[in-house]
Design the sequence.
């Protein structure tokens, strides 16, 4: 499938267009045997991250019987040369795991390169930020009771098997400020009703759940490892927040709105109509695009940048050096200004055609763009060597 991305080739067993129109944000989808995820994550990766990478909290949580255990129960000082008090204690973690606790490796899109690459690709395709956690559950155990998430999830079964029980939402499309704990009794009641999906996931299976869908899972006869890709969807409510911010900022320049209420006023009733009218007018005029894109840039990080390799690229720069735009920069060229996740740069008119060519994401020779421009962008962390 030329041009198909990780969503269509590795996460769903229906076409992207059908997923977008019938499934996305609407209903659960179970896809059987869609991919081998051993190149993304594995049991060996779990052991290495916990025992050899010097991870600290909050890169790991531990849960048992529906409760999260205190961090002090599985962390300890790092020893000579690393005076850190909260590094993971692999012996303590082994004992809790052997006693039935679930290990939750959090933010794997920051700590495990294959997951980082996969998450970045998916985020680019969906247009929404993506995070990644792994859940490692001993046989016949469950880490969390029935609950819902405030973000969409793709559940990728990596190793072992896990039974998933899914119920429809008690609160459709919850915002991030509306966690399941606010509706604990409704969730508990709904969990007693007939399930929408009751199935066992095997390696290679993927389950998609929109935010708000209730779920609980229990490992079966072997250790279960699954990867959860959390999609933090942008919502219309978020756009409304940006519009309101832009409108309020504009009203700072309105002398009437900056004025004090009358002396001795008992309440705002006499002023509400005028304020509402000016606020509505400001909302109509507001441009929330810059706020939206700024927030979007802040939701993620660009692709990794090695300082030693980058300095070598600057020092070895020549006419035949091939460079490309650094991945996941969220670049926008507005007039003569390029905004990215690593800052903004203004360019003279003569450089704009070369900058526009860079935005195609392809490889380019330094001589075709201009050596001085390429050096400036390498130093800014916007360009990287093409082979990186």
Sequence:
């Amino acid at each position: 499938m030329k041009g198909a991305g990780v969503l269509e080739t590795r996460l769903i067993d229906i076409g992207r267009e059908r997923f977008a129109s019938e499934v996305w944000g609407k209903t659960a989808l179970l896809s059987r045997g869609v991919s081998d995820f051993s190149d993304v994550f594995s049991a060996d990766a779990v052991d290495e991250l916990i025992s050899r990478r010097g991870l600290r909290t909050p890169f790991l949580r531990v849960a048992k019987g529906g409760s999260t255990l205190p961090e002090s129960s599985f962390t300890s000082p790092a020893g000579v040369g690393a005076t850190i008090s909260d590094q993971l204690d692999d012996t303590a973690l082994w004992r809790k795991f052997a006693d039935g606790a679930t290990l939750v490796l959090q933010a794997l899109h920051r700590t495990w390169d294959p997951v980082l690459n996969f998450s970045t690709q998916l985020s680019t395709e969906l247009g929404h930020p993506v995070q990644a956690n792994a859940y490692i559950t001993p046989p016949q155990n469950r880490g969390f009771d029935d609950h819902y998430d405030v973000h969409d999830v793709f559940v990728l079964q990596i190793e072992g098997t896990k039974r998933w029980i899914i119920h429809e939402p008690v609160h459709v499309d919850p915002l991030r400020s509306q966690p399941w704990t606010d509706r604990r009794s409704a969730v508990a009641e709904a969990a007693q009703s007939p399930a929408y999906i009751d199935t066992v996931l095997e390696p290679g299976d993927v389950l998609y759940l929109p935010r708000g869908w209730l779920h609980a899972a229990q490992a079966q006869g072997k250790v279960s490892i699954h990867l959860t890709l959390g999609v933090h969807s942008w919502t219309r409510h978020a756009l409304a927040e940006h519009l309101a911010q832009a409108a309020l900022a504009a009203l700072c320049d309105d002398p009437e709105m900056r004025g004090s209420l009358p002396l001795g006023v008992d309440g705002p009733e006499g002023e509400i109509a005028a304020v509402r009218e000016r606020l509505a007018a400001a909302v109509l005029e507001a441009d929330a695009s810059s706020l939206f894109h700024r927030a979007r840039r802040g939701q993620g990080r660009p692709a990794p940048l090695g300082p030693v390799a980058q300095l070598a690229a600057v020092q070895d720069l020549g006419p035949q050096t091939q460079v490309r735009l650094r991945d996941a920069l969220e670049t926008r060229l507005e007039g003569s200004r390029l905004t990215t996740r690593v800052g903004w740069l203004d360019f003279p008119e003569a450089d704009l055609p070369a900058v526009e060519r860079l935005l195609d994401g392809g490889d380019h020779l330094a001589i075709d763009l201009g050596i001085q421009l390429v050096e400036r962008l390498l130093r800014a962390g916007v360009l990287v060597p093409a082979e990186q």
